[in-house]
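Exercise 3.2. Students should predict the tertiary structure of the chain below and write it as structure tokens, then compare their answer with the key that follows.

Predict this chain's 3D structure.
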Amino acid sequence: MQKIIRIGTRDSQLALWQANKVRKELKELGYESVLVPMKSTGDIVLDKPLYEMGVTGIFTKILDVAMLKGDIDIAVHSLKDVPTVLPEGIIQAAVLRRDDYSDVLIFKGTEEFFGEQNGVIATGSLRRKAMWLNRYPTHTVVGLRGNVNTRLDKLENSDWNGAIFAAAGLYRIGKKPEDAISLSWMIPAPGQGAIMVTCLDNDDYSLDACEQLNHKETEICTTVEREFLNLLEGGCTAPIGALAYIDGKTEEVNFKGVLLKKDGSKKITVNKNAKVGSHEFLAKDCADYVINRGGKELMLEDEEVSANLQTVYSTKKLSELQKETLSNTIGIEDSDFIKIRFNRIPAKVMKNEIENVIITSQNGVESLLNSFTKNEMNFKNIYCVGRRTKKLIENRIGKVTHVAKNAKVLAEYLSKELESKQVTYFCSNVRLDVLPASLKAQNITVNEVEAYKTMLSPIKLDDSVSGVLFYSPSGIESYLKENTTDKVAFCIGETTAVEARKHFKNVEVANLPSVDSVLEMVNTHFTSPS
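Answer key:
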């Protein structure tokens, strides 16, 4: 029986368009395939061995992990988003024929702002920002992240003059306006306009299928561009542009590249050619040219500027969109100081109807769903903590009888209102005693079911970190295993702050119990006039 190839893709409109293109081309070759869309943001627990394999790409990580776990057979990416070094075990299986590689400007109103001193342009790309400021040094460039549709909406609802997009991404989903301006002077990102397909190096069936999709000319050009990027060690940390194309008349690979200072005040460009078949050292020659003309020193200048930033650390992984909300004077790093492992809950727990159920976290909900289907969970009354937990329960399990803002308030409510003096509490191996202790003091029997394990996963922070973002008492416990308390503790809520005050002199609490509110508090702390 013929194997059905599982195609991993992000779930944005553009990513799905690209994945469907690959699926269509595979079908024309006689291969059956199915799409496996995945969220590109949200919490995902990565085991340490996978990190050690070099899974680093912001947009590719979740698909790399899925492939290494055996959940998908191939992955489809925008080539410009793929790190120049792939994780061990994953290889480039194909690069499709390249589309338009240019950057375009979608603007509002008239083009008069080009000649004005105070134009405002939006982009989330270091390269686009630096190249724009190099050409228009008096303009302001603001951050803009998200998928194509999100960015278009933000532009529409802003007072910016315009925003920069990749031409290919716009026309693939039918969103390229007729009056968009092609920025022909802007050297694109390495691999821009091309689609890459990856697979496991030992999956001969998928590799054989995908190799038939490969466009050799595009592969040659994008390989040169990505090697140039790799040799300059830029990745996503330096403004680097690269474009290679093959001249059909001369049979030459023509290359042009650029490295800029992040503020656009300096740039180094290079242009070189090499015959196809003799282009092996073209990328190295171009990278050496840039380095010999002060490329390393230029990047070092930016690093020294970055060293003057206020640095904070989040004890929970954040999305790139969340990080973009911070002021550009604040640097942020992150990792999960708490790792969650779901337990297998015994089937006998669900044998009979459970009259009163308590769930105090979203992890509690996910752990139940990991062991049982919605129909297997026979709960009469569900009591929970937090609006987000309530929403998740009602979307996935059933109606919530009562929600409280924290465990203490829920305990007070249940002590007064509960008719039956027995509850089942689906909890972690690490949890606050306030809820069960309060209920037991009111002669309410609490049947605790350990639905998941909360494991501490601390990292030693650099001394330069000024503040730490905490989202739970367990996160503080994990942090204290490796670190000192001479920093500002930014806490998501009062329960977390109570624990923080036992150890930190400077504790701040968000106005609302949300990650966005914590980030807003960090902005206010470090950017407000003293």
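Discussion points: The domain at 103-182 is CATH 3.40.190.10 (D-Maltodextrin-Binding Protein; domain 2). DSSP finds 18 helices and 24 strands in the chain.
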